[in-house]
C-alpha cells in the first residue's frame, strides 16, 4: 500500500463519489452500523486514553496588542507563553459556546 502525505489544510478535494458515500454514511442510524468485529476497549486502554491526541488545529499567525503586565505575567511562567495565551482563549471560547 502506498502512503500519500499532504500538508495540513492542503488535502485534495473529495470526489463526487466520496462526497456521496459520506452523505450516505451520515444518514445511517447508529443501530444500522455493524460494529460486531470491533473488540471492546479494556479498562487499561481507557485508563491510558488521551482525548484529542491526534487533533492538530491549524495555527494562524496574528498580531495582538496585550497589556504589558499581562504579557510579563505570561512570560514569567517560562517558555510557551503563546501556547498559554491560546489555551486561555480556547477555554474562554469553549465556556462561551457551552453556556446554558
What form results from the Cα inertia axes? extended
**β-strand amount:** under 5%
Q: Mind describing the biggest β-sheet?
A: none
Helix content: 40-55%
First-last Cα distance: 48 Å
Q: What is the averaged pLDDT score?
A: 88
Indicate the low-confidence ranges by residue numbers.
none
Please state the structural category: mainly alpha
Question: N-to-C SSE series?
Answer: HHHH
Using only C-alpha atoms, the radius of gyration works out to 21 Å
- The number of E-state strands comes to 0
Q: Quickly count the helices.
A: 4
Q: How would you sum up this structure in a few lines?
A:
This protein is mainly alpha-helical and 100 residues long.
Plain-language structure description:
The protein has 100 residues and is mainly alpha-helical. The protein has a domain of 39 residues. Helices cover 43% and strands 0% of the residues.
Amino acid at each position: 500500500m502506498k502512503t500519500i502525505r499532504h500538508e495540513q489544510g492542503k488535502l485534495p478535494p473529495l470526489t463526487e463519489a466520496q462526497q456521496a458515500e459520506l452523505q450516505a454514511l451520515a444518514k445511517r442510524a447508529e443501530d444500522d452500523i455493524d460494529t460486531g468485529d470491533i473488540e471492546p476497549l479494556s479498562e487499561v486502554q481507557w485508563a491510558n486514553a488521551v482525548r484529542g491526541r491526534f487533533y492538530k488545529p491549524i495555527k494562524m499567525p496574528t498580531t495582538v496588542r496585550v497589556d504589558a503586565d499581562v504579557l510579563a505575567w505570561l512570560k514569567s511562567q517560562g517558555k510557551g507563553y503563546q501556547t498559554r495565551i491560546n489555551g486561555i482563549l480556547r477555554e474562554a471560547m469553549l465556556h462561551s459556546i457551552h453556556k446554558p
